[in-house]
Amino acid sequence: MTYDLVLKDGEIVFPGEGLAKGSIAVKGGKIAALLSPGEHVEARRVIDCTDRLIMPGLIDPHTHIGFGDKENDWLTESRTAALGGVTGLFSFWRSDDLGAATGPWRNAALERSAIDFGFHFGVTSRRHVAELAALSQRFGVTSVKVYLMYKGAAGAAKGFGEVDDGLLFAALQAGAKIPNGVVGVHCENTEVIPVLREPLKAAGRDDLKVWDEQSPGFLETENVFRVSYFGEKTGCPVNIVHMSAVESLDLVRRLRHRNRPPIHVETCIHYLSLTRDADIGNIGKVNPPLRCQTDVDGLWEGVRTGEVSTIGSDHVPRKRSTKGPDIWQASAGFPGIAQILPVLLSEGWRKRGIPLQTLAAATSRNVAELYSVPNKGRIAPGFDADLVVVDPDKETTVDAADYPSHSDYSPYQGMTFTGAVQHTILRGMPLVEDGALTTDIEAGGAYLHRAPQGETK
Fold this sequence. Notes:
There is one protein chain. With 457 residues, this protein is of the alpha/beta class. Helix 2 (98-112) packs across helix 3 (126-139) and helix 8 (217-234) packs parallel to helix 9 (246-255). The chain has helices at residues 73-83, 98-112, 126-139, 152-157, 165-176, 193-202, 208-214, 217-234, 246-255, 293-305, 340-350, 356-370; strands at 2-3, 5-14, 18-27, 30-35, 42-43, 46-48, 53-56, 58-63, 86-93, 116-123, 143-147, 182-186, 238-240, 263-268, 310-312, 387-397, 416-426, 429-433, 436-437. Strands 2, 3, 4, 6, 7, 16, 17, 18 and 19 form a 9-stranded mixed beta sheet that branches.
């Protein structure tokens, strides 16, 4: 047999399992065979992976495509993702009328995205809850998100008037009825925030640390309890997205029980690499806020043990001009999809000794399993040939100008990480070669339809 592609003689990282030297043969967009070191086979293309890591392509579970330049975000952000070894992403999708708007948004992505993509539905109204079962089957979306930060006045300012505990409970009831359904929740008690915020504003505070002080970690933790408790009572698996506080993880540890619905935990790379003391000013504003070093260290320990099961970027591709004029008026969120792997390799593997297979699981296998993505997230025959080849010793310094993203800045600007993406391969198609986008890269991304049946057009 002649294979289409062979990644030859690398250190293969099997997510959640271990490492082994060998080669990977690809045919028809699938992993066709795993070969012993030095084993020769015929192939149309061979990439020498000596002294390189071969990892599964990353699946970013947490992005906000369309928050920058809606018309072009799928084009720019998918190519930025590929440069970081990301071969798939999930983006949060909100619309008053999900039934009417989701198809066109999916089609826009099919026309532009260079990588595979899927959606989480944003639930912000009773209408969404009522339609959730039909929408889930029609569009293959098994995951939804409830935004507790949009309760009351905070929600009204964004045009959301129905977000409350009743909506949360109803969404969990509906989520429990979706096959393999999971409800993610942004946990932040916005009803208490103003009590803390107003004195800080009155004192004239305008620094990054104050964003954490006006919404401290315990306000996340309080919401984590409510979500987990309601999840238990409704029988619905929950996912605490972008967890920022180690106190929240400690609470989850106490609440988890084998006879209760699972409580999943996701964190993001900025909560593993940046703190409220970072010298980045307003561009570090994000919800939930950046925390202290003790939170960073505690969340890393959760990654090590697997108690934090998925890691994303919370990528928001807005311009630097939106991050001001002060901390109170600056937009929340920042780009980061291309830095997932460098952060995990430098801060997780090299600095803290977290096994590569653990990090790979949190960015591939665990994401695919949580969100019911077939044929993704593993290195095994029959799975999609979504792979990334990494030079583990090459240092790279972050410069926003090196990426095609709509965003023109990075909270990691000037930071140097060890571990660089050399090749990114999606279903056997090279997207990145020798650290650069291929000249013929096109919109080859596929939609990740996850329902077992239903309308797909």
